[in-house]
Design a protein that fits this description.
The chain has helices at residues 11-14, 57-60, 64-74, 89-92, 116-122, 140-156, 172-183, 201-209, 221-234, 245-251, 253-261, 279-293, 313-318, 349-363, 375-386, 394-408, 430-437, 477-494, and strands at residues 22-26, 32-34, 49-53, 111-113, 125-130, 163-168, 188-195, 213-217, 238-239, 269-274, 302-308, 368-373, 417-422. By secondary structure, it is of the alpha/beta class. The protein folds into three domains: 111-135 and 252-453, 3-Layer(aba) Sandwich (Rossmann fold); 139-250, Rossmann fold; 459-505, no CATH class. The protein is globular and about 80 Å long. It binds pyridoxal-5'-phosphate (PLP) and zinc ion. Residues 138, 140, 172, 242, 274-280, 340-341, 393, 395, 423-424 line the site of pyridoxal-5'-phosphate (PLP).
C-alpha cells in the first residue's frame, strides 16, 4: 500500500524520519556518552551501557491508540526498511535514516499456539514464538540488524571505514554477525571466536559459509568473551557481543511484536525466556518498559527467566529473597543441552539487576521471576513439543520446562497464558536429539532417555530379494514390481495396515 492511500491522520507518521536524541547511558555512574563513537563500556567506570532517548517525551505525546494504528498500518507497507525490527523505528534506533537500514528478513516471527494435547501436558495455555524462523535461525538476528544497520550508517557518513566486527559466541551470535557483516561486504568484515567443540556443527557451518574468519578457542564461552574484550580494548575492532548496546536495542523488537500480536493488551500474559548472557531478557524487559512508558501498553506482562541447573548464575542470584543480601557470583558451568545459554558470567547481569528492580517497581508488584530446570526436563519438553507440531530448539524446551515448573510452584495462575521463546531452530541443535535417540548422552548431562520419546529410522531391506535398486542402477520390469510389492508388504506389516483402501469420502 502506498503512503498516500493511508488514512489522513496516520499519513504524517507512516514513514518515520530520523529523530530523537540517542545517547549511551552508563548503568554505573549514570553519565551519558555520544553515540557517534562505538562504545561498549563506560570510559569512566567500565560499567555496561544502554541506549536511551533524551527526547523520549515526544513519543509520549502521541496517544497510545494512535501508536497502535501506526504500527498496524505499517504492516501494509511494502518498504523493505520497515519490514523488520524498524516497524518500531521510533523505539529501536530512531536516528537511523531508512537508507541505512539492513533488512535480511528478520523479526515478525510467528506465534504458534500449542495444541490442546501439549497445553494439557504443560498445565497451561501457551504459545511458542518461533525465533528459529529468523534468517540465521535464531533471535540474534534482531540485534544484528540493529548493530549492523548502525555500523552501515556510520560507514555511509564516512565516520568509520573498513570495519572489522568481532564477537565471542556460543554459536548463534557468530552465525548472525557473519551473515549481516557479509551483506555489507566489502565495508565490513567479521571475525568470530567460538569455544572449541562447544558449538554444534550446524552453527559452525554458518559463519564459515558467510566468509567470516572463524577462531576456535579452548575453554568455554566465558573464556572467549575475555579474549574478545581484550581485543576490543586494545585493537581497532567493532564488538558485536550483547555488550554492544545496539544489539539490545534491536532485540527489544521482540516485546513490541508480542504487544502488537496481542493487540496491545498484555493483561494475564507471561513472557518466558531462557537466559545465557542475559542480553535477551534485558532487551525484553526494556522493550516492555518503553512501550509502557509511552502509553502503548497498559500492563507489564510477567517475565519468567529460565536457566539450566548446569548454568544458573542468574537464578542463584535471585534465589536469595532478601534483595539487600544478594551478591552476584560467577559460576563454573557444566555441559548443557541449552548450549547457547551455557554461560557462567553473563555480561548483562548489571543491566538485569537494574531493570528487574525498575520493572517490579513500576508494576507495583513482583512481575519478574526466575526458575531453574534440569537437563532431563529440557530435553523431554523439547521432544514432546516437537512431537506436537513445533520446531523448538533445546532452549525452547528449556523455556517450556521452566513454564511448567513455574506453574507448579504457583508463580503462574490458571487464568494466565504464556509466550514461550524458542530462541533458535530445532535443526541447529539436532545433535542433542540424536544423542537422546541413540542413548548416547555423556554421563555429565545426567539425561536418561524416555523410551516413549525415542525415534529411529527403520531400514526396509527384504532379505529374500536378490536385487535391489541402487543410484544409477534402477530395477525394471518384474524385478521392480517384486521389489515394490515386497517393500510395501513389509511397511504394511510394521504399521499394521489392513487391506481395505480409503474410500475417498
Ligand atoms: C544466545 C542464545 C540464548 C541466550 O540468550 P542471551 O541473550 O545470551 O541470554 C538462548 N538461546 C539461543 C538459541 C541463543 O542463541
Ligand atoms: Zn560509568
Amino acid at each position: 500500500m502506498k503512503p498516500k492511500d493511508f488514512p489522513k491522520d496516520i499519513q504524517p507518521y507512516i514513514i518515520p524520519q530520523p529523530s530523537g536524541e540517542l545517547i549511551y547511558r552508563c548503568l554505573g555512574c549514570g553519565n551519558d556518552f555520544d553515540i557517534q563513537s562505538l562504545l561498549y563500556t563506560c570510559p569512566d567506570c567500565r560499567q555496561v551501557l544502554l541506549i536511551y532517548d533524551r527526547s523520549f517525551s515526544r513519543l509520549q505525546k502521541i496517544p497510545g491508540k494512535i501508536w497502535h494504528r501506526i504500527f498496524d498500518y505499517r504492516k501494509m507497507l511494502s518498504l523493505s526498511a520497515l519490514k523488520g525490527i524498524y516497524r518500531y523505528h521510533e523505539f529501536v534506533g530512531s536516528v537511523m535514516p531508512l537508507a541505512s537500514i539492513i533488512y535480511l528478513g528478520e523479526a515478525h516471527t510467528p506465534m504458534i499456539e500449542a495444541n490442546s494435547r501439549l497445553q494439557e501436558a504443560a498445565g497451561i495455555r501457551f504459545f511458542f514464538k518461533n525465533e528459529g524462523q529468523n534468517p540465521s535461525a535464531s533471535f540474534k538476528d534482531r540485534g544484528m540488524a540493529s548493530a549492523l544497520s548502525y555500523i552501515n550508517f556510520l560507514v555511509q557518513q564516512g565516520l568509520v571505514t573498513e570495519v572489522l566486527a568481532v564477537c565471542a559466541s556460543t554459536g548463534d551470535t557468530s552465525a548472525a554477525a557473519a551473515l549481516y557483516a557479509a551483506y555489507l561486504n566489502p565495508h565490513v568484515k567479521s571475525a568470530v571466536l567460538l569455544p572449541h567443540k562447544k558449538v554444534t556443527p550446524q552453527q559452525l557451518s554458518q559463519p564459515l559459509g558467510n566468509g567470516a574468519a572463524v577462531f576456535e578457542i579452548p575453554g568455554v564461552f566465558d573464556d572467549c568473551m575475555k579474549v574478545v574484550e581484550h581485543l576490543s580494548e586494545h585493537y581497532n575492532v567493532a564488538l558485536l557481543n550483547s555488550k554492544n548496546a545496539w544489539r539490545i536495542l534491536g532485540q527489544e523488537s521482540y516485546s513490541y511484536e508480542i504487544s502488537q500480536d496481542f493487540e496491545f493488551d498484555l493483561s494475564d500474559k507471561v513472557v518466558v525466556v531462557p537466559i545465557g548472557n542475559a542480553g535477551n531478557i534485558t532487551a525484553i524487559m526494556n522493550g516492555f518498559l518503553k512501550f509502557y512508558d509511552a502509553g502503548i501498553i497498559n500492563n507489564l506482562p510477567k517475565i519468567l527467566g529460565v536457566q539450566s541447573r548446569h548454568a544458573n548464575p542468574v537464578y542463584r542470584y535471585y534465589s536469595e529473597p532478601n534483595a539487600a543480601q544478594r551478591k552476584f557470583v560467577p559460576m563454573t558451568v557444566k555441559p548443557s543441552v541449552a548450549q547457547a545459554a551455557m554461560i557462567g558470567n553473563p555480561v548483562s547481569m548489571p543491566r538485569v539487576i537494574h531493570l528487574v528492580d525498575l520493572y517490579n517497581r513500576l508494576a507495583g508488584i513482583q512481575k519478574v521471576f526466575f526458575c531453574e530446570v534440569s537437563e532431563q526436563e529440557i530435553m523431554d519438553w523439547e521432544l514432546l513439543a516437537n512431537r506436537n507440531g513445533h520446531i523448538a530448539c533445546t532452549h525452547g524446551g528449556e523455556s517450556l520446562a521452566g513454564l511448567v515448573a513455574a506453574k507448579k510452584q504457583g508463580l503462574i495462575a490458571d487464568h494466565e497464558s504464556a509466550v514461550v521463546d524458542s530462541t533458535a531452530h530445532a535443526l541447529k541443535f539436532s545433535g542433542f536429539q540424536q544423542m537422546y535417540f541413540d542413548r548416547q548422552f555423556p554421563a555429565d548431562y545426567r539425561i536418561r532417555p524416555d523410551p516413549s520419546l525415542i525415534n529411529a529410522p527403520v531400514l526396509v531391506r527384504p532379505g529374500d530379494l536378490e536385487k535391489i535398486p541402487a543410484p544409477g542402477k534402477p530395477l525394471v520390469g518384474g524385478e521392480l514390481k517384486q521389489f515394490v510389492e515386497r517393500v510395501s508388504a513389509e511397511i504394511a506389516q510394521i504399521l499394521e495396515l489392513n487391506g481395505s483402501k480409503y474410500t475417498g469420502r
